[in-house]
């Protein structure tokens, strides 16, 4: 049986541009991750093959300072390492690892205890570099949002332990916007700029940020669905819609494809409705920031297609008319619990 994926970027107007620092800085960031000895064997091999530096290169290509780009590249690598680690954890273990990570992020000047899980040093050393280049406003927002991310990781572990599926797309998105840590990634887009807080809190900017979050998260869910459904995952928008509406995998995929294209149109409209900025300099910075959000949508899509994480190497679904073999699923609908809020 085959699955037809929607061509979600058929009308996406933003092009792919890569950072000038990709090759050199990505190698430094990978060496940092490997020095922590969190990954080994097949998992380390998968990490290298996934080439997260290619994603960072697209989404942060506008960074002209290599120190800024290094921190951004480190965050992308850190998040994927942490995501793969936390996906295997029980609720209790997820709470422990989350507490260690948050403590290390906040207390970056304090050496980590001997024998602690290396996730602590990963967060401490990242935070040290982040503090060297970021304003107080960026640091505060990042820390608040990273704490939200860690709490969401625990909530996802609770759902996983109970084989629970969120009862509606709306309730799922409320959690998904946090579990991807994309808001933290948006925070780093602001490192080179000095945009006044009242502009960033303008409803038009906040609306555009939510649209960007949803496009990144759901775009990933659509392109990763086949792999995630096959291994029995429940944290995916397509799976949620299957259960919420009683749809087949194909019908749920079609539904999310339409949903995504509508959000693309809404996002493009929102890009043309920016708040007054008071000066040409600030307006240019705001334009660069919202373009950075668009770059995250572009980069997520391009990386998801070509990293080998969701599609076999050399089997780009564009070349097959978006038709892919539907993988056999370990998912058991009879054991699923609906998570109601």
UniProtKB/TrEMBL annotation:
Cofactor(s) named in the record: Mg(2+)
Transmembrane segments: none
Calcium as UniProt keyword: no
Highest rank taxon of the organism: Eukaryota
One GO BP: isoprenoid biosynthetic process
Enzyme class: lyase
Keywords for the protein's UniProt record, in alphabetical order: Lyase, Magnesium, Metal-binding
UniProt xrefs under InterPro entries: Isoprenoid_synthase_dom_sf, Terpene_cyclase-like_2
Enzyme Commission numbers on file: 4.2.3.-
Alphabetized GO MF terms: metal ion binding; terpene synthase activity
Family: Belongs to the terpene synthase family.
Name this polypeptide is given: Terpene synthase
Species for this entry: Mycena albidolilacea
């Amino acid at each position: 049986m085959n699955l037809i994926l929607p061509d979600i970027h058929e009308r996406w107007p933003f092009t792919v541009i890569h950072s000038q620092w990709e090759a050199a800085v990505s190698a430094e960031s990978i060496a940092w991750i490997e020095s922590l000895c969190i990954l080994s064997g097949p998992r380390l091999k998968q990490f290298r093959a996934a080439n997260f530096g290619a994603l960072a290169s697209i989404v942060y290509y506008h960074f002209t300072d290599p120190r800024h780009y290094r921190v951004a590249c480190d965050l992308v690598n850190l998040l994927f390492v942490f995501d793969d680690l936390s996906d295997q954890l029980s609720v209790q273990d997820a709470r422990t690892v989350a507490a260690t990570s948050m403590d290390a992020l906040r207390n970056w000047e304090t050496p980590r205890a001997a024998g602690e899980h290396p996730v602590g040093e990963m967060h401490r050393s990242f935070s040290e570099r982040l503090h060297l280049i970021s304003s107080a406003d960026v640091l505060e927002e990042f820390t608040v949002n990273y704490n939200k991310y860690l709490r969401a990781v625990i909530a996802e572990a609770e759902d996983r332990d109970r084989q629970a599926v969120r009862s509606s797309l709306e309730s799922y998105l409320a959690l998904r916007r946090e579990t991807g840590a994309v808001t933290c990634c948006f925070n780093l887009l602001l490192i080179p700029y000095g945009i006044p807080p009242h502009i960033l809190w303008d409803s038009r900017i906040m609306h555009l940020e939510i649209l960007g979050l949803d496009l990144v998260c759901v775009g990933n869910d659509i392109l990763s669905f086949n792999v995630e459904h096959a291994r029995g995952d429940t944290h995916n928008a397509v799976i949620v819609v299957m259960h919420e509406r009683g749809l087949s995998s194909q019908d749920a995929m079609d539904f999310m494809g339409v949903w995504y294209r509508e959000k693309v149109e809404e996002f493009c409209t929102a890009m043309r409705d920016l708040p007054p900025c008071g000066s040409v300099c600030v307006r240019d910075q705001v334009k660069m920031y919202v373009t950075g959000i668009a770059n995250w949508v572009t980069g997520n899509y391009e990386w998801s297609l070509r990293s080998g994480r969701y599609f076999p190497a050399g089997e780009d679904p564009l070349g097959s008319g978006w038709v892919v073999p539907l993988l056999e699923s370990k998912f058991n609908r009879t054991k699923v619990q609906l998570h109601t809020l």
